[in-house]
Amino acid sequence: MLCIGLISFVYSLGVGTNTAETHPKLTWKNGGQTVNGEVTVDSNWRWTHTKGSTKNCYDGNLWSKDLCPDAATCGKNCVLEGADYSGTYGVTSSGNALTLKFVTHGSYSTNVGSRLYLLKDEKTYQMFNLNGKEFTFTVDVSNLPCGLNGALYHVNMDEDGGTKRYPDNEAGAKYGTGYCDAQCPTDLKFINGIPNSDGWKPQSNDKNSGNGKYGSCCSEMDIWEANSICSAVTPHVCDNLQQTRCQGTACGENGGGSRFGSSCDPDGCDFNSWRMGNKTFYGPGLIVDTKSKFTVVTQFVGNPVTEIKRKYVQNGKVIENSYSNIEGMDKFNSVSDKFCTAQKKAFGDTDSFTKHGGFKQLGSALAKGMVLVLSLWDDHTVNMLWLDSVYPTNSKKAGSDRGPCPTTSGVPADVESKSADANVIYSDIRFGAIDSTYK
User: Fold this and answer.
1) Has residue 4 been placed in a domain?
2) Which CATH number characterizes residue 170's domain?
3) What is the DSSP string of 155-216?
4) Would you call 81 a catalytic residue per the annotation?
5) CA distances for 395 relative to 56, 145, 190, 230, 391, angstroms
6) pLDDT 10s digit of each residue in the chain, 439 long?
């Protein structure tokens, strides 16, 4: 047993000592009580270099051939480094507010976007069971144009970042490891505590990213995916109730297979007011006026959950969610199994949400406990058109019109140059009983 432990240690994902890992502080409220939390940036954004030196293990969108000829050797040679949150990633916090800047020109590199997690303590993610609860936050998306996504959501990551299940992972939650979502992403540099370097291929349209042969799957509750033009609330479910590594085509579209070929529901069941037929509800100068900040209230009705309700609060006024207005479909202003089935039928979409268990599976995933993710990103795959424009771009069928942004918008090169100063501000996170966090 001693030999096995030593071997695991030798090949484990370690941490560097060049930059101290000092997490930004972030207060939030649980049942009315103030909680002193912290946030950590995802391991994918971190500098990865050799132990005891500053030589890059990962540079641009490639792993070093010398240092990482295979995953085991790569894990032996390389470490994750601490983060300069403001200088490198454009992430700052003050009290209960967290600001994420889109493009940050640091001393040694240019950073685009970020993904952060709420910590319970230095080494443990804060876990949320949303069943029968309400999750509320205030957001400022006034500086998020077409093509950007300020996303706040929950995923079934391990509470410790995977250190218990995967002994090769020494870095853990403190260094933002263990990510997964319903897209089974293969662009993660580390999965299950080891580098995802085997079979790594650089992305042709992203100088910072690539894809390995493995992906990381888990259920995902998208409370908020939005810019100043459109927003969506979307549950996604997976067959497994914890983070699970996939390989190749079993990762679905991201692994080179069919879109619906994974153990997860990639499309989810989304409620986007524009897509659901109300084009005067959300946006600059509209009912929910995105030119100024507002509060987003999401209610998970039932334990286990059977319905997701949405409210907004702006300038002291509670605004109920818009109703759907789609031909041949009953009117809904919340998300439920009934809504999902009706929406998929009306739009002619594949109902993978129901296939993977619908709200019954969602309730089980929420009960398992989920990690809060706060992010800002652009889309190198389809330019965020699925959120704020017509997608597919040549489609005339119902549901394709998702927002008013031009189909030529959202190209990452354009967004990163013209909207480099874009940012999103999340603040005043509140969690508690239904109808207790916003009145």
Assistant:
1) no
2) 2.70.100.10
3) E---TTTTTTT-TTB-STGGGT----BTT--S--SEETTEE--TT-EE-TT-TT-EE-SEEE
4) no
5) 44, 23, 37, 19, 7
6) 333 333 344 456 889 999 999 999 999 999 999 999 999 999 999 999 999 999 999 999 999 999 999 999 999 999 999 999 999 999 999 999 999 999 999 888 899 999 999 999 999 999 999 999 999 999 999 999 999 999 999 999 999 999 999 988 999 999 999 999 999 999 999 999 999 999 999 999 999 999 999 999 999 999 999 999 999 999 999 999 999 999 999 999 999 999 999 999 999 999 999 999 999 999 999 999 999 999 999 999 999 999 999 999 999 999 999 999 999 999 999 999 999 999 999 999 999 999 999 999 999 999 999 999 999 999 999 999 999 999 999 999 999 999 999 999 999 999 999 999 999 999 999 999 999 999 8
User: For this structure, is 220 an active site residue?
Assistant: yes
363 within a domain of the structure (yes/no): yes
Does some domain include residue 77?
no
Task: Please tell me which residue in 21, 170, 220, 416 is annotated as part of the active site.
Answer: 220
44 alpha-carbon distance from chain centroid:
13
Catalytic residue among 21, 134, 159, 225: 225
Give the number of domains in the chain: 1
- Domain range for 227 is 26-46+85-433
